[in-house]
Each structure stands twice: as structure tokens, then as C-alpha cells.
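REQUEST ID: PR-0412
SUBMITTED BY: lab tech R.K.
PRIORITY: routine
TASK: structure prediction, single protein chain
INPUT:
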Amino acid sequence: MPWYRSLNRQQWRTLVAANLGWLFDGYETYALILTVAVALHGFLTPALYPQIPFYAGATIGITLLGWACGGIAGGVLSDYFGRKRVMIGAILAYAALTGLTALSWSWISFAVLRFCVGLALGSEWGTGTAMMAEIWPDSARGKGAGLMQCGLGIGFFLASAIWLFVSPLGPESWRWMFLLGILPAFATLWIRRGITEPEKWTAADRARRAAVAAKTTGAVDARTDELTKFTLAQLFSEPKYARLTVIALAMSLTTTLGWWGISTWVPPYVASIATGLGLPGAQWAAIGGIAYNIGGVAGYALFGFFADAWGRRTVTIVYFALSLVLTPALFLWSHTLPLVLVLCAVNAFFTNGQYTWMPVWLPEIYPTRIRATAISFVFNAPRFVAFLGPLFAGTLIAQLGGYGIAATEVGTIYLLGLIAAPFFPETRGQPLPEN
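STATUS: complete
OUTPUT:
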């Protein structure tokens, strides 16, 4: 029987809900990447225009910092209050805050609102990932995670396609991109009716509540004591999980810094080549983004299929290795628009697609009681470092007068992932840990 015929309606609905949440995150994130330079031309004086890469990097970095804070908090809340409830709250929050971003009147107001949007954005991924892992079957979990993760690329693609038509509307066109970000709020009406809490989380929540009640009566054993600890403390109280978390953080830093420090510069890089040829930069940035995100969507989805076929570790290592090679191939070795567009897609297949190792692999490492906390912490904590990536890269670009060397230097981060990944345990086909 084909794998997809073994899935029930609730499992498919969960995939749609998690994919939509990540799609909305993707749209909002890439809308910033596409429009930040245009917005900054309106906020800054002409004398500061040469420093736009620095201000753009700072704005993206501030968003990333908010994402880190909100993501960790969202994971903790999801373990205590439920996956569905936190997902709905996160989508409503970032829809409202994204709409407010369209009303920014200065760079400071824009940056503050971006930080707040980041808080809400970060809360959604961990809840959706935990929900998918706990509802989908062991044999197809990688495929489900890949199909969920490709929602980010679809959101990127959607933002690029919309910007292609909105960008010619003038210097204030960027405001329309964020105003459209209000629409995801309506999806929460369907999510509220269409999905239920995973039974695995419900059982873990009952066990935690029972342990808390037992502790108040003085009936404390090792199991009760562990269950009543704060979830972040549980993550580090057992040496096994503490060691695995350190390895996972190194791999997550690789993926996160690589994306935010390199991939965010693809649209302005394509625009710079087009401008040098006398072509409209904003429109070619959108075209470059479309090509990039076609490759990214394929990379996200197929990672999950590859991981179910050949194992989590092998596929992750291959993605890291090819990302290392393809970064200079795109930014240093290609100078014509047709070749750049092809390499945008190929590069994104691996540099974007490698994100899927986290929703595929991480839920299979941690037990249900701390699953959302753990995967959200691993996914988001590196952003406290990675938020410096866009700022550092923007500074390098401004100093070096180009994207190539700066992107290649930041791309050496993929070596860290290649070193760390072999030490993470293979979990293909194994049931989720429950104890």
C-alpha cells in the first residue's frame, strides 16, 4: 500500500494546518527580505543610502532576535498549554503585528515592530512540528515533516510573486506587502475547528498534572520530581539530553546562520547584477526570489523523503556539504542572469532544504513532555548568535563593495555542521520516545 493511503483525515488536516502556519511565516519573512531596501530608502536620508546594507542587516537581525525569544517561549507554552492553542495565538499575533508594520513612520518604529513580529513568528514552528511528529506514523514521519517544512518555501514563493506585481506601484509599495500579512488571521477559524490536540501530548499533560498533585501531598519519587521540573530545566538535567542538545545546537547554528547570513542576500545580489545591465533591479530581485524558492520548496519536501529512504544522518551531511560548495558557486562563479537564476534554484535546494533536518530529526530525540520546548530551543536559541549574521554580512558587503566574498566567508559555517552531524543518533523508522 502506498504510504499516503495509510494516513487518516486527522493526520492530513494536521499537515495542512502546520504547513499553513509555516507558509504564513515564510511569506512574512521573505516580504521583509524583498522590501527592506525599498522601505529604507524612504526612512533614511540620501546621505545614508550607501549604508543601506548595514541598516537592512540590522533590521533582519532584530527580527531574528525577536524570533529567538518568541520561539523558545512558544515551545515552553506549547508543552504546558497544548499545541493547537499556542499555534492559533501565534498566527493571530503575527497577522496583527505584520499589518501594523505597514504603518511604520521611521526606521526605529519599523525595527521595533519587526522585533515584535519576530516574537510571534518564532512561536509557531515548534508547535506545528511537535503536532506533526505526534500525529503522523513512524514510517512516514520524515515525509510529513518535509511536506510541512516546504510551507516556508511556498510562503517565500508567494511573497516573491506578489512583490513582482506590487513593486512597480512606487516607493510606498512595500506597505502593501505587510498589509496583506493580515490575511493569515482568517485561517485560525479553520484551524480551531479542523484539528485536535495530539493524544500523546494529552497523555503527557495528564502525567505532569498528576505528578504536580502528588508532589503537593509529599509523595515524591524520581519520576515525579522529573515531571514537575520546568521543561527547560528537564532539557539539561539529564546528561543524555544535555549532550545531544549541544550537538543539535551546533547543527542548528550552521543552518540558521547559513540561511540568514547568506541566503537573505540573494534578492539584492540578483538586483545588483540586473541594475548593472540596465534592467529594473526590484523586479529582477523578485524573479531571483521566485527561482530561489522553487529550489527551496523542492529541497524542503524531498529532504523528508530522502531521510525516510536513506536515514536522517546521511541526508543531513550531504545537504551541509553541498551547501558549502554551492555558496561560492552562486556568489563568486556566476555573473550572467540566466546562470545566476539556475544556481539560485540549485543552491536553495540544499541551503534552504537543509532546514528540514530539524522537524524530521529533533522530535525523534526528545520525549513528549519536553518535545516542543526542546525542538523550539534548538531551532531558536542559535538565533541569539545568528542575528549577528545579517549585520556582519551587511557590514562586509558595504566594506567590500560586493556580495561574493562576504557570502563565501560566512558560508564556511557549513563546516561546523559537517563536524557535528555524525555524532547525532540515527532514528529512522523508530517510534517517538515517550518516557
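NOTES: The chain is about 75% helix and 0% strand.
REVIEWED BY: pending
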